[in-house]
Amino acid sequence: MRISTMAQQATRTLRIGMVPADGIGREVLPAAQRVMTAAPGIPPLEFVHLDAGFEYFQQHGTSLPQATIETLKGSCDGAMFGSVSSPSHKVEGYTSPIVRLRKELNLYANIRPVTGPVLPGSIYTKPVDMVTIRENTECLYVKQESLEDGPDGKVARAVRLITEKASTRIGRKALEIARARAALRNETGSTTPTKVTICHKSNVLSVTDGLFRTSVRSVYDADKPENGGEGRYARVGLDEQLVDSMVYRMFREPEVFDVIVAPNLYGDIISDGAAALAGSLGLVSSVNASDDFFMGEPVHGSAPDIAGQDKANPIASIRSAALMLEYMGFSEPALAIYKAVDEVLMDGKTLTPDLPGGTATTSQVVDAVLNAL
Ligand code: NAI
Ligand code: MG
């Protein structure tokens, strides 16, 4: 379903596929569902529960049943994914359902904003407002690994796939997101400059990261009027940063980053790092995007250390739901949810224990967000 058509048919019931998977995914997805349902301006919603996960694999021999893929592809307008407990050792026949879903649904971009009020106890004291656009389909996550016996012991190898097509596509996505940010800043009179920073390590990996870097740059350069382009990105700057020093700068001076575009693995790592700036992984949202389908997903994992204790922070999932709605074209309920969440955070009375001073349960935070709505 195309986004514009969807927003026009706002009174039609939207079908949202819910894939809680494992661990705290089962606690935070119902939380997001409660908040979505109550948001002002939301069309009627129908939630479809879908199976996936490591526990499902242990019971049924697959981590992602075909029925889940087909329902998402065939009859859902949007989706939410919780979190999966992927083991750190190889388990024969197991493959991560989220990595596969991103490929099956062609969700080639993972958009991860880190923004919001500065919380007490946050390691950074100025407001952070950055978004990581992570390539979602290739890099080392193609998972072509091999292990063999060599003369000096075992030898493991992994393929790192970077293509011009996927790098160009993610570069364009990042630039389009930057363009929308620049337009919004212009409208609201903000003087904050908008730019895209390419994250890479092409001083060492000059072939793979080199291709990523030049592909993104080509989209930007081709758009310039002097090169015959439309000038769509005239308000957007472009620079680059090596991934290691990016981590350093992100913690020293996060205000220098705005939109970051990164290959899959670096994007995964730096966005968890950026989450620390926000105060907790339990606050940071993402949406997996193709050009016309969106799946919200908290950045955190299944948190087995706190699962089943009603203390998982539901805000990452609640914000991910809002992000999904925003990208689907429903900005009114999305903005209302962001605002309600910010109010609860700034109020500081109802926080889960991952945040300084927090003692509230998952459900108490949801109640507070519903009240603020
Ligand atoms: P994690 O994100 O699950 O947990 C890291 C730390 O953050 C833990 O101390 C946890 O308690 C805390 N945390 C995370 N989310 C929280 C929340 N909402 N509220 C409060 N505290 C929260 O990462 P970890 O421990 O490295 O991985 C655990 C499992 O999750 C692994 O099996 C891993 O494969 C999986 N994982 C799944 C992801 C996904 O489904 N997309 C992403 C990352 C990891
Ligand atoms: Mg991760």
Summarize the structure.
It contains 12 helices and 12 strands. It is of the alpha/beta class and 373 residues long. The chain has 2 domains: 181 residues, Isopropylmalate Dehydrogenase; 156 residues, Isopropylmalate Dehydrogenase (3-Layer(aba) Sandwich).
Polypeptide structure, described:
By secondary structure, this protein is an alpha/beta fold. The chain has two domains: 1-107 and 300-373, Isopropylmalate Dehydrogenase, CATH 3.40.718.10; 123-278, 3-Layer(aba) Sandwich (Isopropylmalate Dehydrogenase). It is built from twelve helices and twelve strands. It has helices at residues 3-8, 25-38, 54-60, 66-75, 97-104, 164-187, 208-222, 243-252, 264-278, 315-328, 331-347, 362-372; strands at residues 14-21, 45-49, 78-83, 109-114, 130-135, 145-150, 153-158, 194-200, 236-242, 259-262, 287-289, 294-296. The strands form two sheets. It has a ten-stranded mixed β-sheet with strand order 2-1-3-12-11-4-5-10-8-9, with helices on both faces. Helix 2 (25-38) packs across helix 10, helix 6 packs across helix 7 (208-222) and helix 10 (315-328) runs antiparallel to helix 11. Bound molecules: 1,4-dihydronicotinamide adenine dinucleotide and magnesium ion. 1,4-dihydronicotinamide adenine dinucleotide binds at residues 24, 28, 83-86, 98, 281-282, 300-306, 312-313, 316, 352, 354.
